[in-house]
Write a structure and sequence with these properties.
By secondary structure, the protein is of the alpha/beta class. It has two domains: about 1-20 and about 80-215, 3-Layer(aba) Sandwich (Rossmann fold); about 20-75, DNA polymerase, domain 1 (Orthogonal Bundle), CATH 1.10.150. The protein contains eight helices and eleven strands. The longest helix is centred in the first third of the chain and has 15 residues, at about 20-35. Keywords: Metal-binding.
């Protein structure tokens, strides 16, 4: 059982709080068909990465702003299959006065929509793809989230599922717990969990919280 003392929690969204992999892959498939772009290369690099950065890598000849808007529209239109991961709703409700935020490679618009569709509690702070100049794996998203919460990154515990997201959080100076998988995808993550009911949070003092993990 792992026990960690923290002051704030930062969550990725897709694959961490929301099971949306099939939805995201379907949307990219639709986009690739519309733009006559091979899907395989997109699927190899899109997990945990902003659509803007995928487009710049795969199809830099296209108008990036137009394509980002198109993908956002597709994500909002085809959001019916996304579901909250088991136990995520209950864990977010258990946070009470623990400061927390969502740090996602989705846009603000898509993040609010997807979390609402899944019935998840909406945080006061979401750092989305449109908030930072450099997306994951750059540390900017997590640095911004910690700063806006008034926290030092070393006091923030991050929950992430993708390699790009884990790199981003570690580079920002946060501790990271990996969601999903049997093995660590980065050697510096603290632990790997697969269900939110493996985690419990308790307040242990003024602005101090204890995370207990039974994985």
């Amino acid at each position: 059982m792992g026990i960690y003392n923290i002051k704030a929690i930062l969550f990725d969204m897709d694959g961490t709080l929301v099971q949306s992999l099939s939805e995201v892959e379907m949307i990219w498939s639709k986009w690739c068909e519309m733009q006559n772009v091979p899907i395989q290369h997109v699927l190899e690099i899109c997990h945990g990465v902003r659509s803007r950065d995928v487009i710049l890598t795969i199809a830099p000849h296209l108008n990036v702003e137009e394509q980002v808007q198109l993908l956002d529209d597709l994500e909002v239109q085809h959001s019916g299959s996304a579901q909250a991961l088991f136990g995520a709703k209950e864990f977010l409700l258990s946070l009470n006065d623990c400061p927390w935020a969502v740090v996602t490679s989705a846009s603000q618009r898509v993040a609010y929509h997807r979390m609402s569709v899944c019935g998840l509690k909406i945080p006061d702070l979401i750092v989305g793809s449109d908030d930072v100049q450099d997306g994951k794996p750059h540390p900017s998203p997590y640095l911004m989230a910690a700063e806006r919460l008034g926290m030092k990154t070393k006091d923030c515990l991050v929950f992430e599922d993708s390699y790009a997201g884990i790199q981003s959080a570690l580079a920002a100076g946060c501790e990271v717990i990996q969601i999903g998988g049997q093995e660590k995808i980065h050697p510096s993550v603290l632990e790997v969990i697969n269900h939110w009911d493996e985690i419990k949070i308790d307040k242990i003092g003024m602005n101090a919280f204890e995370i207990k993990i039974n994985s």
